[in-house]
User: Fold this.
Amino acid sequence: MFKEFFLSPFHYEFMRNALLSCFCLSLGCGPVGVFLILRRMSLMGDALSHAILPGAAIGYMIAGLSLPALSLGGFIAGLLVALLAGLVSRTTLLKEDASFAGFFLIALALGVFIISMGKSSIDLMNILFGSALAVNHQTLLLMGTITTFTLSTLAIIYRALVAECFDPQFFGRVHGHGTFYHILFLMLVVLNLVSGFQSMGTLLSLGMMMLPATAAQFWTRKIWPMGAIAVLIGLVSGYSGLLVSYHMNYPTGPSIVLIAGLIYIFSLLFGAKGSIRHYITNRVKQS
Amino acid sequence: MVVDDYSTRFSMGLNFRECPLVESHSKKILVDHLTVTYGKTVALEDISGAIEPNSLIAIFGPNGGGKSTFVKVLASLIKPTKGSITHHCQSTCQPAYLPQQSTMHRSFPITVREVVAMGLWHTVGAFKSLTKTHQSLIDQALERVGLQDYDSRLIETLSGGQFQRMLFARVILEDSSLIILDEPFTAIDIHTSQTLLALIQEWHQKGKTILVVLHDLEMARKYFPETILLSKHCLGWGPTSKVLTDKNIMNSYHAEKIDRKRNHV
Assistant:
């Protein structure tokens, strides 16, 4: 019974592939999400996930449903928006978040426009929401590569990233301008969103990045463990989301993200650091 | 009457500064006709003078008088609009600069020890690991500012005074020959002020050059041999007793008021 429920779904190859893709995604997205939050850029992740769309759409127009074309297009579009927004905020009066908003809205509309001009709206649904159960070996290979690259890059630039984020002025003075690390980090964000969009789609892949990372905030106040907890939450959501979707016949991507969402709400209510539970006990103590 | 005095002198195009240009010398910092503007607003105008090695200088003046701008230019964070600053010293004169508190990310999840350790960046960089020597240097710095029991505390749990002590410990590890502190004594208790003042004097005895932006007249007179009085222009640069006269201070505040009025019109 136990084995039946928890293990048997993974006799099927498409379930194993889906599970592996979730694991890849959790490993890369967790730490990246934690740094996005630390850099107070949570909403820019949102913007970037939309910005990928026109690139993926153009890739689709040119090469059809080919993963390399979609990914490359998405990556280029995402990075372009990130760089343009950064450039605008540095040269004009607009702050970075506002200029991000401007560009990603254009990109989103452009993406939907291109896709609608092309073929049926089923394609649009595929790109927006992906399908975890259609992940093949080629996709897995790409995701694995991106995850490996992400984790090793983060390990190498960890100290610089933390120092630059905590005190940019100090970092600029002792090390030189932080732009290089900023751009490298934005590249990692875009790469991981691209990695997620075949299985989860451009909209939901952000959920795998932000929900575990925000939930992790409530369990520790150390950066490294925060990343590890985010990964753990991602893994748990991926696995249980697949199980639920298999047994109950629910849509896969949304199930996974919803479970991550449940874990987030649980952490928000009962977490060990600064949660609502803390707020209430402090209130009770005071009165 | 002082106002009249000021405006007549101003209209005659005279400057208050008694900032003689000294011929260049090794290790000296020369400030030459320095002007900084932000857009149309003039923050500093035509400042000249020389900072001798091993001097302990208070930078004094009204709010908006360009004190912070002046030290930022010295720390090479801002480029002068006109004029120049020349550092005559060896490669190790990368100044240690402590900005006003508000520019830091205070709820960042990082421990006191990690922040202090960043002071070793010039030797450790982004990749090298911390050796035992480094660790004991960090311990010494923490002890010097009285934070030895706080090293694993998160910075968000520190009081204002403890936070400032931590930043001073980081400055200790930077081990720079030029130290620039922007209002380090704002909003901290007397006990902490005393510890940090003692530290500044210790640096002075070790031969470092120290510039401190101050608001406290008594402190400047008591502990700082030299003062630069700024109110957009340089109203005095030299021994504190000669610069911080009541008349000069009055002038600096009036100059600031007149300036504000002119900007409004």
